[in-house]
């Protein structure tokens, strides 16, 4: 066994998850590929969303994959970083907005 | 990364045998991680690669260039003195007359720096090839007053200008090609637009070449073309015709960069994974012949830089015999994966 849970070369083995459940694997990858096609959103916009979400779910494989995908699409580092700030803002905001609950509990219990 | 050519720095990679050794060993060694290009062709039943009809004669007028780009597969620079002689240039004119070549493609270095450049263009344009390409790095058009009138000169001879602009923003361009390159390139593009190049209806073709500024592949050619068109129009009011995406091949200074940045193995793996059998049929060595400054013949400009001469009894312009040349098989090595990755890559951009 490797010492670390994450190995960069494992990303290339992603497709192997179909081996133990071919039908579901195929459905997943077909769906995945369709999601990223040009649609109402451009493939470029989808790539930036994927990059932001990758940071939110903190998946090192996806961060690697969508940074490279962005480079290939000519997405600039400023655009990538702005996408991350959107993720960070929502993440931070999601914590903070729960402050409303905290405040309500606090107010209710105190005189 | 130096500001001089590998040759001037006496870098071990200026030795072509050394480059080929790297491309043949390590991850590509027998029983290694990645299949050799030859084996990949066999596995996919796409090889050996044989020339089809000769359509493009690509002349490398010499390795001198006003720039020293970090990714240059030619290892060009101001310190390179190799140049095609007038005798060889005349020989090329003869061959143009003898054959049914329909595209003449002048490259370098910066072909405009060749002292016989204008003479040769004038003579060659009299022969009347259908498509007469000059590959210009753009900055040369603004490098010195003596070049300022080149856009006019190109127009007079109906030259098809193919120019490299690595990106539509300053930062990436300057990092790959040197400080100040972007603004000079923009000025050059404006000068070309001014005489009609790239404008619809002018009939004067101005295409741009995009190659990635780093160890990654070029994305979809059409999508990038749209981005380039939008950005150049909006930011600089510049127009052009087509964008060609070209993959960087692991040769010369790009190979140096890949090794120094520890990207070599990953990059080669990426190229191998992206191998597209459909691209093999249209790689440029199938319709091109590349001539070195000293008259030696190659399947393509990349093989020229690796000094892989055509595998034919005819290896030099002086013995030119088209029939014999056309029966050869193309010389290949692992750098060829760069031409077959994804949508493929050639001097005319994607091939599928
Ligand atoms: S890439 Fe082109 S412009 Fe840059 S050094 Fe090489 S020949 Fe010159
Ligand atoms: S590098 Fe040259 S020989 Fe190899 S596939 Fe590309 S064009 Fe052909």
Largest interface, with counts of residues having CB < 8 Å to the other chain, equals: A-B, 9 and 15 residues
**Cα distance, first to last residue of chain B?**
34 Å
Helix content of chain B: 25-40%
The H/E string of chain B reads HHEHEHEHHEHHEHEHHHEEHHH
Shape of chain B: globular
- Biggest sheet overview of chain A: none
CATH class of chain A: Mainly Alpha
Strand content of chain B: 5-15%
| Overall helicity of chain A | 55-70%
Low-confidence stretches of chain A: none
Class based on secondary structure composition and strand pairing of chain A: mainly alpha
Number of domains in the coordinates of chain B? 1
Instruction: Give the overall average pLDDT of chain B.
Output: 95
The second-level CATH architecture of chain A is Up-down Bundle
Q: List each distinct ligand once.
A: iron/sulfur cluster
Task: Describe, in plain words, how this protein is organized in 3D.
- The complex is a heterodimer of chains A (111) and B (352).
- Chain A has helices spanning 22-35, 43-56, 60-72, 77-97, 99-109.
- Chain A is mainly α and 111 residues long.
- Chain A has a single domain, classed as AhpD-like (Up-down Bundle).
- Chain A is extended, with a radius of gyration of 19 Å.
- Chain B has 352 residues and is an alpha/beta fold.
- Chain B has a single domain, classed as Alpha-Beta Barrel (TIM Barrel), CATH 3.20.20.
- Helix content of chain B is 36%, strand content 10%.
- In chain B, strands 6-5-4-3-2-1-7-8 form an eight-stranded mixed sheet.
- In chain B, α4 (117-127) links the parallel β2 (103-107) and β3 (131-136).
- In chain B, α3 packs parallel to α4.
- The two termini of chain B are 34 Å apart.
- In chain B, 51% of the residues are buried.
- The model of chain B has no long low-confidence stretch (mean pLDDT 95).
- Chains A and B meet through α3 of A and α9 of B.
């Amino acid at each position: 066994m490797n010492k670390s849970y994450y190995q960069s070369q494992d990303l290339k083995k992603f497709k192997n998850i179909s081996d133990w459940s071919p039908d579901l694997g195929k459905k997943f990858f077909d769906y995945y590929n369709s999601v990223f096609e040009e649609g109402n959103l451009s493939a470029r916009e989808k790539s930036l969303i994927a990059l932001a979400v990758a940071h939110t779910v903190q998946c090192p494989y996806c961060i690697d994959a969508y940074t490279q995908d962005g480079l290939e699409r000519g997405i600039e580092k400023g655009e990538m970083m702005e996408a991350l700030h959107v993720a960070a803002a929502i993440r931070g905001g999601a914590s903070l907005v729960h402050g409303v609950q905290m405040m309500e509990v606090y107010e209710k219990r105190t005189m | 990364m130096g500001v001089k050519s590998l040759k001037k720095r006496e870098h071990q990679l200026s030795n072509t045998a050394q480059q080929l050794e790297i491309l043949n060993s390590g991850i590509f060694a027998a029983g290694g991680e990645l299949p050799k290009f030859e084996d990949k062709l066999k596995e996919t039943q796409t090889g050996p690669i044989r020339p089809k009809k000769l359509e493009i004669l690509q002349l490398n007028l010499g390795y001198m260039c006003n720039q020293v780009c970090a990714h240059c597969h030619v290892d060009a620079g101001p310190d390179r003195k190799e140049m095609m002689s007038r005798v060889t240039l005349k020989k090329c004119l003869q061959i143009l007359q003898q054959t049914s070549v329909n595209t003449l493609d002048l490259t370098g270095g910066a072909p405009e720096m060749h002292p016989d450049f204008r003479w040769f263009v004038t003579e060659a344009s009299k022969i009347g090839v259908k498509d007469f390409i000059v590959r210009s790095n753009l900055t040369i058009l603004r490098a010195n007053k003596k070049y300022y009138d080149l856009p006019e000169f190109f127009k007079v001879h109906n030259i098809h200008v193919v120019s490299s602009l690595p990106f539509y923003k300053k930062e990436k361009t300057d990092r790959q090609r040197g400080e100040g390159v972007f603004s000079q390139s923009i000025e050059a593009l404006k000068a070309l637009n001014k005489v009609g190049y790239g404008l619809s209806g002018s009939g004067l073709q101005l295409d741009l070449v995009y190659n990635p500024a780093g160890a990654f592949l070029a994305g979809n050619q059409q999508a990038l073309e749209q981005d380039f068109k939008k950005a150049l129009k909006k930011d600089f009011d510049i127009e052009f015709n087509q964008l060609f995406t070209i993959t960087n091949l692991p040769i010369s200074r790009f190979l140096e960069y890949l090794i120094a940045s520890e990207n070599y193995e990953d990059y080669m793996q990426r190229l191998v994974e992206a191998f597209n059998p459909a691209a093999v049929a249209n790689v440029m060595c199938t319709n091109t012949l590349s001539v070195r400054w000293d008259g030696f013949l190659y399947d393509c400009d990349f093989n020229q830089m690796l000094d892989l001469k055509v595998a034919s009894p005819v290896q030099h312009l002086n013995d030119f015999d088209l029939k014999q040349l056309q029966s050869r098989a193309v010389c290949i090595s692992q750098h060829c994966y760069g031409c077959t990755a994804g949508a493929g890559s050639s001097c005319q951009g994607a091939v599928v």
